[in-house]
Every structure is written in C-alpha cells, then in structure tokens.
Design brief:
The chain is mainly alpha-helical and 191 residues long. The protein is built from eight helices and two strands, in the order H-H-H-H-H-E-E-H-H-H.
C-alpha cells in the first residue's frame, strides 16, 4: 500500500473506510441532486429546512429552530434576516420569552414551501434510489436518525459551554486627558 505524505499507510482505501469522509461525499451528492431539482435560484436546502420547521412549530423561537434544524445560531439568525427581507418569514417578540424572537411563515413563505415540497420529495427520491433495496433504504434513514440524535446532546452541551459575548467597553481616556478634580489631597481635605 502506498504511503501518504504524512508517512502513514492509507490513500483511497483508507478514505473508503472513513465514515466522516463518506458522509461528506454523500452530502455533496445529496446537495448536487437538490440543485438539479431546485435549480440555482431556488430555495436552498437550509431555507427549506427553516421554513418546514417554522411551519411545523408555529411561533417557534430562533433558538427552537436551531435545535430542530441543526443550523448554528449565528447562521440561522443571518438566514432569518435574509428570509424576512425576501418576505418568506416574519419575526416578532415571543409571547413565552420576551428576550427571544418568534418566527412565523408569511403567506409568501407558505407558498414557497408548498412549491418546494414536491421538488424536495423528488430530490429525496433520487437520493434514496442510489441505495439498492427498500430494506437498505430504511436502514440508511434509521442510521442517519441515530447519528443526528446522538449529536443533539453534544450540540446542546457545546452551546451551553460557549462563552457569552460581552459588549466592548469604551476605552478609558489617558490620565492626562481626565479632568482635574483637585487630586488626592483635595479629597482628603474635603473629608
């Protein structure tokens, strides 16, 4: 077997045994199929996921959508902003938590989701046809669900452990720029 640049035995056969590499390649193929169905200017796969989750959980907060879709918080916030600008979503303060934003589909968002559903079903169908046998397809879906469920607790722990971002404080002016208030001796005399 040929050695890689790092000196370890490996190569293509090693990649063929790497779950992370194979999942990455499978994702690439799935996204290619998705683009074939939706076209370059269609709803993206992540936008579809956000809209489907927002429809399923009417009034879900952005934090809820992060948990449901697996899209990280900052990416989802940016996506929501862009989807609001396109008229697909609307955002308002949550009735449950005034600090959180609830997200709802607009009528245009519902129409876009309804238009996207058959395309998503076709893309999923094409992807599953690449796996021979109905039993293997069901096993494949079950294994994918197992992986995502196992990742959920780790993602939640990572989110809790993430440091909170603090607002930057204004820099203190240099001592020479501070107004003179009589110095320490003046304060002692006043006391």
């Amino acid at each position: 077997m040929a050695k890689t640049k790092s000196g370890a035995k490996g190569g293509i056969a090693a990649l063929d045994q790497s779950p992370s590499h194979l999942l990455h390649r499978a994702l690439q193929r799935a996204l290619d199929i998705y683009v074939e169905e939706f076209g370059e200017s269609g709803v993206t796969q992540r936008q579809f996921a956000v809209m489907a989750a927002a429809e399923e959980r009417e009034g879900a907060t952005q934090a809820d959508l992060v948990r449901i879709t697996g899209i990280d918080r900052s990416t989802l916030a940016d996506m929501a902003r862009r989807m609001i600008a396109k008229g697909l979503l609307e955002r308002e303060r949550s009735n449950v938590d005034a600090r959180a934003n609830a997200v709802r589909l607009t009528d245009a968002g519902r129409a876009a989701l309804a238009d996207a559903r058959p395309k998503m079903a076709a893309a999923d169908g094409k992807l599953l046809k690449l796996i021979s046998g109905g039993g293997r397809r069901a096993t494949f879906l079950s294994l994918l669900r197992d992986l995502t469920r196992a990742a959920a607790p780790a993602e939640a722990a990572k989110a809790k452990a993430a440091p909170k971002v603090q607002k930057a404080k204004a820099p203190k002016p240099p001592k020479s720029a501070k107004p003179h208030k009589g110095g320490k001796k003046a304060k002692k005399k006043a006391a």
